[in-house]
Amino acid sequence: MKNIIDLFYKNLFLTNRLFAGLTGSAVLFLLSFFFPWMGVIPELVFWVLMILFVIDIFMLYQTSKGVFAKRHAPERLSNSDNNELGVYIENWYTFGISVGIIDEIPFQFQKRDIWFKTSLKPRERKLINYTLRPTRRGEYEFGDIRVYVKSPLGLVRRRYNFSQAETLPVYPSFLQMRKYELMAISNRLTDIGIKKIRRIGHSLEFEQVKTYVQGDDYRTINWKASARQGSLMVNSYTDEKSQHVYCIIDKSRAMKMPFDGLSLLDYAINASLVLSNVALLKEDKAGLITMSEKPGAIVPADRRPAHLNKILEVLYKEKTRYLETNMELLYSTVRKVVKQRSLVVFFTNYESLNALNRQLPFLKRIAKYHLLLVVFFENTELKKLSEQPAADVEGIYIKTIAEKFAYDKRLIVKELAKHGIQSILSAPQNLTVNTINRYLEIKSKQKI
To answer: Is-above-0.70 flag for pTM?
Structure first.
C-alpha cells in the first residue's frame, strides 16, 4: 500500500493552471474583507476548484495504463551524420489528452531540450521523429522515456515511465558511404564534386571483341577477327581489376585536432571507409592498416562480400593515441603485409616542414615499392586568420604567423612531389570527395 501511495505522489505534478486558480481564489478571499457583498463567492470558487482537481486526478488515474510509448531507433548510429530516431505514442484514454515527452538521450550529446509536446485524440497514435548527430564513435546509452499526460481540465499531470534503456553503437559514417554508393549507381557523383576523369591510353585488362561502331578507336581494330567475320571488329578493354588499395591511418597525437566536433582521426576513418567501398565497387581489393607508436589493426586486402563489414568493425574501435607514429615500424609492417605493388593511401597530418622531414626517409622507402598517396589536412582556422585584414600591430603579427603556417603546408606538397610522392592537402569537410577523385584519377591513368 505504501509503495502505491509513493508511486502516486512521485508521478503526480501540479500545473500552472491549478496555481493560477489558487492564486485567483486567494485574491477573492482578500477582496472579500473589503467588499462584504461578495459573500460566499470566494468559498464557492475555491471548492469548485477543489472538486475539479479531484475529478482531474480521477480521470488520469482511473486506469493503470492510459498511454503507451516506445522509442524507435536504428541498430547502430552513423558518426557525424544526422541519424533519425522516433518516439511512438498511443492514447488509451477515452478522452483527448495533451502530452509532454522526455526521451533520455545519451550524455555525450549534452542536450537538455529533448522535450516534445503534442495532443492525442482518444485511441489516436503518433510517431514523433527527431535527429541526433553523434561526433564520437563508441557506445551510447539511452535511458527511459517519460510521458507527462494532461486531461482537458489541465490542473494536474500524470507521469508514465517506460523503461527502455538500451545501448547503441556509433560506427564510422556508413550513411555517407551509402550516399556515395547510391549516387554512383544513379550516375550522379558529379553532384557532390566527384569528377569524371578522362581515360588516357589503354588498360591491359582485355574484356571482349565487339563489332566496330562509329567513335571506336581504329587502333584497337582486330584484323584477324575482322577477316573471319567479314566486318570490322575491335578489341574492348576495361579497367584493371583486383588491384590492392590499402588505407593507412595515423593514430598519433597529430590526428587529435578537432574540427566541427570531430577529430581529424574521425575524418580519416570516414574517408577510408568510403574509399574502401568505392574500391570494392571497382572490383579492387581493399585493405587497412592503423598505426601509432605501436602496431594497430591490420586487415589484409580482399574483396569478399563481407569484407567491408570487417573493415567497419575494425574502424569502430580505433582511438587516438598521444605519442608520435613509429615510422620505422610502419615501413616494416607495410613490407610484411603488402606483398605486391599497391596504392597506399596514408592519412596523417603535418603542421610544419620539420614534421615531414622526420618521416620523409621512410615515406621514400615505401614509395619505392608502392604508389604512395599522402593525405593531410589544411588548417582552416589559420586560413581564415590569414585572409582577415589586420586592424592593429597584434593583428599583423597574427596574420603573418597564420600565413607562415599556410605556406609551410604548400611547401610540404612540393617537397613530397620532389621525391615522387603524390599528396592531397584538403580541408577536413572535403576530404572524402578529394580522396575519391584522386583514386579515380589514378585508376584512369593506370598508375598502380
So the answer is: yes
What does the pLDDT look like over 239-254, one tens digit per residue?
Answer: 556 789 999 999 999 8
pLDDT tens string 351-385: 888 999 999 999 999 999 999 999 999 888 887 77
| Vertex 428: Cα angle to 345 and 421 (nearest 5) | 30
Decide which of 214, 238, 262 is a domain's last residue. 238
Say whether both 379 and 317 belong to one domain: yes
Dihedrals φ, ψ of 445, to 5°? Answer: -90, 0
Out of 190, 217, 238, pick the residue that ends a domain: 238
Distance separating alpha carbons of residues 21 and 323, to the nearest angstrom? 65
Q: Are residues 141 and 218 part of one domain?
A: no
Task: Look at strands 371-377 and 233-238 and give their pairing.
Answer: unpaired
Residue whose grid cell is 584522386: 438
Residue 180 has, within 13 A of its CA and on its CB side, a CA count of 24
What is the Cα Rg of the chain in Å?
33
Q: How many residues does the structure list for the chain? A: 448
DSSP assignment of 228-244, as one string?
A: HHTS-EEEEEE---S-E
DSSP 280: H
Burial 265-297 (b: 16+ CB within 10 A, else e): bbbbbbbbbbbbbbbbebebbbbbbbbbeeebb
319 and 222 in one domain?
A: no
